[in-house]
Amino acid sequence: MIKLGFNGGLIAACGLLAAMGCGDDQHVTTLQWYRVPCHGPFPRLCPADRDATGELQFVYDAITGYELTWGVEADVRYHVEPGPDAEDAGDDWVVDAVLAERTVTPGAAVTWGVGIGETWFTAVGDHVAVLGEPVACEPTLCAELTTVDATAGRLVDVEYTGDAAMPLRAIAVRPAP
Fold this sequence. Notes:
Layout: H1 8-20, E1 27-39, E2 43-51, E3 56-58, E4 62-64, E5 72-82, E6 91-103, E7 109-114, E8 121-124, E9 127-130, E10 133-136, H2 139-146, E11 154-160, E12 168-175
Parallel strand pairs: 4-6, 10-12
Antiparallel strand pairs: 1-2, 1-5, 2-3, 5-6, 7-11, 8-9, 9-10, 11-12
Protein backbone atom coordinates (compact mmCIF):
# COMPACT_ATOMS: atom_id res chain seq x y z
CA MET A 1 0.00 0.00 0.00
CA ILE A 2 1.44 3.35 -0.94
CA LYS A 3 0.21 6.04 1.39
CA LEU A 4 0.79 9.33 -0.36
CA GLY A 5 -1.18 12.53 -0.16
CA PHE A 6 -1.64 15.66 -2.23
CA ASN A 7 1.18 18.13 -1.75
CA GLY A 8 -0.07 21.70 -1.84
CA GLY A 9 3.40 23.03 -0.95
CA LEU A 10 4.80 21.52 -4.12
CA ILE A 11 2.13 23.19 -6.23
CA ALA A 12 2.89 26.54 -4.56
CA ALA A 13 6.61 26.04 -5.20
CA CYS A 14 5.90 25.28 -8.86
CA GLY A 15 3.89 28.50 -9.16
CA LEU A 16 6.68 30.47 -7.53
CA LEU A 17 9.26 28.97 -9.89
CA ALA A 18 7.08 29.75 -12.90
CA ALA A 19 6.78 33.35 -11.75
CA MET A 20 10.58 33.53 -11.37
CA GLY A 21 10.99 32.43 -14.99
CA CYS A 22 13.32 29.51 -14.36
CA GLY A 23 12.84 28.20 -17.88
CA ASP A 24 12.19 24.76 -19.26
CA ASP A 25 15.44 23.29 -17.97
CA GLN A 26 14.30 23.61 -14.34
CA HIS A 27 12.01 21.00 -12.80
CA VAL A 28 10.34 20.67 -9.41
CA THR A 29 9.44 17.34 -7.86
CA THR A 30 9.00 15.60 -4.53
CA LEU A 31 11.54 12.87 -3.87
CA GLN A 32 9.71 10.24 -1.84
CA TRP A 33 10.87 8.86 1.52
CA TYR A 34 11.61 5.42 0.08
CA ARG A 35 13.42 3.69 -2.77
CA VAL A 36 12.27 0.58 -4.65
CA PRO A 37 14.08 -2.43 -6.10
CA CYS A 38 14.42 -1.78 -9.83
CA HIS A 39 16.42 -2.68 -12.90
CA GLY A 40 18.30 -0.11 -14.90
CA PRO A 41 21.72 -0.90 -16.26
CA PHE A 42 22.01 -3.08 -13.12
CA PRO A 43 19.81 -4.05 -10.15
CA ARG A 44 19.58 -1.24 -7.61
CA LEU A 45 17.25 0.70 -5.33
CA CYS A 46 15.66 3.49 -7.37
CA PRO A 47 14.32 6.67 -5.79
CA ALA A 48 10.68 7.50 -6.42
CA ASP A 49 9.33 10.96 -7.13
CA ARG A 50 5.95 12.63 -7.45
CA ASP A 51 5.93 15.53 -9.89
CA ALA A 52 3.73 18.64 -9.87
CA THR A 53 1.01 16.79 -11.83
CA GLY A 54 0.85 14.13 -9.10
CA GLU A 55 2.42 11.41 -11.24
CA LEU A 56 4.50 8.90 -9.25
CA GLN A 57 7.48 7.38 -11.04
CA PHE A 58 10.82 5.70 -10.40
CA VAL A 59 13.98 7.71 -10.98
CA TYR A 60 16.44 5.60 -12.95
CA ASP A 61 18.88 8.50 -13.37
CA ALA A 62 21.55 9.52 -10.86
CA ILE A 63 20.68 12.28 -8.38
CA THR A 64 23.46 14.63 -7.32
CA GLY A 65 23.39 17.56 -4.93
CA TYR A 66 21.02 15.89 -2.49
CA GLU A 67 21.50 12.97 -0.07
CA LEU A 68 18.48 10.66 -0.11
CA THR A 69 17.48 9.58 3.40
CA TRP A 70 15.00 6.84 4.30
CA GLY A 71 11.94 8.45 5.88
CA VAL A 72 12.52 11.95 4.46
CA GLU A 73 10.55 13.46 1.58
CA ALA A 74 12.03 16.48 -0.16
CA ASP A 75 10.61 19.03 -2.58
CA VAL A 76 13.53 19.87 -4.86
CA ARG A 77 14.25 22.04 -7.87
CA TYR A 78 16.66 20.36 -10.30
CA HIS A 79 17.97 20.36 -13.83
CA VAL A 80 19.07 17.44 -15.98
CA GLU A 81 22.56 17.00 -17.37
CA PRO A 82 23.67 14.23 -19.72
CA GLY A 83 25.35 11.34 -17.93
CA PRO A 84 29.04 10.53 -18.46
CA ASP A 85 28.35 7.81 -21.04
CA ALA A 86 25.54 9.58 -22.90
CA GLU A 87 22.46 7.39 -23.39
CA ASP A 88 23.86 4.16 -21.92
CA ALA A 89 24.35 5.49 -18.40
CA GLY A 90 21.29 7.73 -18.19
CA ASP A 91 21.18 11.35 -17.14
CA ASP A 92 22.07 13.13 -13.91
CA TRP A 93 19.45 15.04 -11.94
CA VAL A 94 21.38 17.92 -10.39
CA VAL A 95 19.51 19.34 -7.39
CA ASP A 96 19.79 23.13 -7.45
CA ALA A 97 17.67 23.80 -4.35
CA VAL A 98 15.88 21.92 -1.61
CA LEU A 99 12.56 23.73 -1.22
CA ALA A 100 11.26 21.73 1.75
CA GLU A 101 11.93 18.52 3.67
CA ARG A 102 9.51 16.44 5.74
CA THR A 103 10.14 13.37 7.87
CA VAL A 104 7.36 10.82 7.52
CA THR A 105 5.81 9.20 10.56
CA PRO A 106 7.11 5.76 11.55
CA GLY A 107 4.67 3.23 10.14
CA ALA A 108 4.44 4.94 6.72
CA ALA A 109 4.22 2.04 4.28
CA VAL A 110 4.99 1.26 0.66
CA THR A 111 4.67 -1.91 -1.41
CA TRP A 112 7.58 -3.30 -3.42
CA GLY A 113 6.95 -5.55 -6.42
CA VAL A 114 9.24 -8.58 -6.73
CA GLY A 115 9.14 -10.34 -10.08
CA ILE A 116 9.24 -14.05 -10.79
CA GLY A 117 12.61 -15.50 -9.80
CA GLU A 118 14.06 -12.20 -8.54
CA THR A 119 16.51 -12.45 -5.65
CA TRP A 120 16.46 -9.06 -3.97
CA PHE A 121 16.63 -10.30 -0.36
CA THR A 122 19.69 -11.79 1.36
CA ALA A 123 19.70 -13.24 4.89
CA VAL A 124 21.89 -11.26 7.31
CA GLY A 125 21.66 -12.60 10.86
CA ASP A 126 18.26 -11.67 12.31
CA HIS A 127 17.17 -9.56 9.30
CA VAL A 128 17.50 -9.37 5.54
CA ALA A 129 19.27 -6.92 3.24
CA VAL A 130 18.10 -5.52 -0.09
CA LEU A 131 21.20 -4.57 -2.06
CA GLY A 132 23.01 -3.81 1.19
CA GLU A 133 20.14 -1.93 2.88
CA PRO A 134 19.00 -3.59 6.13
CA VAL A 135 15.34 -4.58 6.45
CA ALA A 136 13.97 -5.91 9.76
CA CYS A 137 11.50 -8.80 9.68
CA GLU A 138 10.08 -11.58 11.80
CA PRO A 139 12.03 -14.87 11.35
CA THR A 140 9.27 -16.57 9.32
CA LEU A 141 8.89 -13.55 7.05
CA CYS A 142 12.68 -13.24 6.64
CA ALA A 143 12.81 -16.88 5.53
CA GLU A 144 9.99 -16.29 3.05
CA LEU A 145 11.72 -13.22 1.63
CA THR A 146 14.97 -15.06 0.98
CA THR A 147 13.21 -17.96 -0.76
CA VAL A 148 13.03 -17.32 -4.48
CA ASP A 149 9.69 -18.06 -6.14
CA ALA A 150 10.32 -19.23 -9.69
CA THR A 151 6.61 -19.39 -10.51
CA ALA A 152 5.02 -16.13 -9.33
CA GLY A 153 5.78 -12.53 -8.47
CA ARG A 154 5.24 -11.17 -4.99
CA LEU A 155 4.31 -7.93 -3.31
CA VAL A 156 6.28 -7.01 -0.20
CA ASP A 157 4.86 -4.44 2.21
CA VAL A 158 7.55 -2.46 4.03
CA GLU A 159 7.23 0.34 6.55
CA TYR A 160 9.47 3.08 7.87
CA THR A 161 10.65 2.38 11.43
CA GLY A 162 12.16 5.74 12.40
CA ASP A 163 15.40 3.92 13.39
CA ALA A 164 18.40 5.17 11.36
CA ALA A 165 20.26 1.85 11.87
CA MET A 166 17.33 -0.25 10.58
CA PRO A 167 14.98 2.19 8.78
CA LEU A 168 12.75 -0.42 7.11
CA ARG A 169 10.70 -3.38 8.32
CA ALA A 170 9.03 -5.93 6.07
CA ILE A 171 5.51 -6.52 7.38
CA ALA A 172 3.88 -8.78 4.79
CA VAL A 173 4.45 -10.79 1.62
CA ARG A 174 1.60 -11.70 -0.72
CA PRO A 175 1.21 -12.96 -4.25
CA ALA A 176 1.27 -10.37 -7.01
CA PRO A 177 -1.98 -10.11 -8.96
